[in-house]
Amino acid sequence: MIEKMIGLTFSKIKGYEDSEELKFVGEGDTPSFLFYHEQDCCEDVRVEEIIGDLDDLVGTPILEAREDTESGDMQYESATWTFYNFRTIKGSVTIRWLGTSNGYYSESVQCRIIQND
Predict the structure, then answer these.
(1) In 3D, which of 63, 69, 61, 58 has the Cα closest to residue 95?
(2) What's the total number of domains in the chain?
(3) Which of 64, 76, 78, 88 makes the best surface tag, with the fewest CB within 10 Å?
(4) How far apart are alpha carbons 9 and 85 in whole angstroms?
């Protein structure tokens, strides 16, 4: 789904490190993209680190949008890292999410397209 962002221009990005949501805001015919995780009892999924400047992704078309994941263990917990890599003519940004759980619950990031009214 993230590949649908290629060629789109966003007016702003809402979110920051340690947040549970990140939203690329589109205007007019450009939809918004919401990255999030529906939390359950024994899991935690959030933005762990933003490498680069989110402003580089605003006001100019997205040239590259890629998702990579890596799974492993962290001291008695299961962990999934999800990397979102974006590039525009202004620069590149990597948004690293970390999901942890007892191994039974999902640690993945969801992306939802929101059509503007």
Answers:
(1) 69
(2) 1
(3) 76
(4) 16
Helix, strand or coil, per DSSP, at residue 9: coil
Residue ranges making up the domain that contains 34: 2-114
Backbone angles phi, psi at 2, to 5 degrees: -60, -30
Q: In 3-state terms, what secondary structure has residue 56? A: helix
Quick: pLDDT tens for 6-57. 999 999 999 988 889 999 999 889 999 999 998 877 889 999 999 999 999 9
CA distances from 14 to 32, 46, 71 (A): 11, 14, 27
Global pTM reads 0.90
CB 99 within 8 Å of CB 108: yes
Q: What is the distance between the alpha carbons of residues 49 and 37, in angstroms, rounded to a whole number?
A: 16
Contact status, residue 99 vs residue 105, Cβ threshold 8 Å: no
